[in-house]
Amino acid sequence: MSPKNVIFKKICKDKSVGVYMGKRDFVDRVDSVDPVDGVILVDPEALQGRKVFVTLSCTFRYGRDDMDVMGIAFRRELYLSTRQVYPPLQDREKGIHTKIQARLLRKLGHNAYPFFFEFPDNLPCSVALQPAPHDVGKQCAVEFEIKAFSAESQDAKVRKRSTVKLMLRKVQYAPEGEGTAPSVETTRDFVMSDKPLHVKASLDKEIYYHGETIKVHVNVTNNSSKNIKNIILSVDQVATVVLYSNDSYVKCVDIEDSGDSVSPGATLQKVYKLLPVLANNRERRGIALDGKLKHEDTNLASTSIIREGVLKEVMGIMVSYRVMVKLIVGGSVSHSTFQTNIICSLLAAAPPKGLKPQVPLDECSKMLAVSGGRL
């Protein structure tokens, strides 16, 4: 039996315009992005001669909408495209690009009109920096939105009662294939020691899924005269706001203080486990998260994958991860640290082919099951 098709529906307050979409997650495959399609339902009597437009926008927000410093708002529009859907500028049948649109048009009748957008190839994915529990207002984020509104013209003043907005997400999934398992090997010489300290660290694979345990293989050969008092491992998230400041925020999202020691002339071979998940970091301000829809849970931000040739400066927030292995080296008087880093990727697993990601609706949306839940 085929899975039920859920339709996302939202209607403006004066009932003149409604938006119907088959999905709200759109996949960026690096070389291509899912197009945005849906149907607009209009009420000609409620419109009273006004036209209907639909826009797709991408906005980078780094402050509340009501904040304004020297005339500069804390938001930047990265992309905006507008289409007129009513009165239609072309034959309705020519505007149909997907099966879901065709089925919705048959169900909703002659006052429904299709819309279709294609993403440019240089837009970032949905990502947000987690606010502190006491923070108010909208968070620093890259957001996508479909907005339908009625007005006398595209540039005329738009009434809130005649506007409907639906948040979207642009997401990336882990590519097929395991890739090369990362490994790092380094040697440290000490002034008062004839022989060095040798450390090798490696991972099982390059790409890990959200919620998956990262296994770190550590091999320490201590030929020095120094005593290794402790070994500490952590996963660091590096979020770089590249659009306006190029600031980097390094946040530890999981740590393992092993307490393991390695005496002079001894060796250690051990596999450590780390689990970087949002559940253990919910109260921490500034951690990057994958974009989310209202009242829906999310996860730590996925590693940013960029197509070759695209400028990083327009990506909004770039995210990467590294596993750090730190050795506390003790001496007769004081101690020092010796660390090495391994770059890894944290991504969402792609859903099985033929299945759409399940996205809960926000409180203002309504779920429409057409023909008993099946289109």
From TrEMBL:
A Gene Ontology cellular-component term: photoreceptor inner segment
InterPro entries named in the record: Arrestin, Arrestin-like_C, Arrestin-like_N, Arrestin_C-like, Arrestin_CS, Arrestin_N, Ig_E-set
Signal sequence, start to end: none
Classification via Pfam families: Arrestin_C, Arrestin_N
Gene Ontology terms: biological process: G protein-coupled receptor internalization; nervous system development; signal transduction
GO molecular function: G protein-coupled receptor binding
Domain Arrestin C-terminal-like: residue ranges: 193-352
Family note: Belongs to the arrestin family.
PANTHER family: ARRESTIN, S-ARRESTIN
Full protein name: S-arrestin
Organism of origin: Amphiprion ocellaris
Organism ancestry: Eukaryota, Metazoa, Chordata, Craniata, Vertebrata
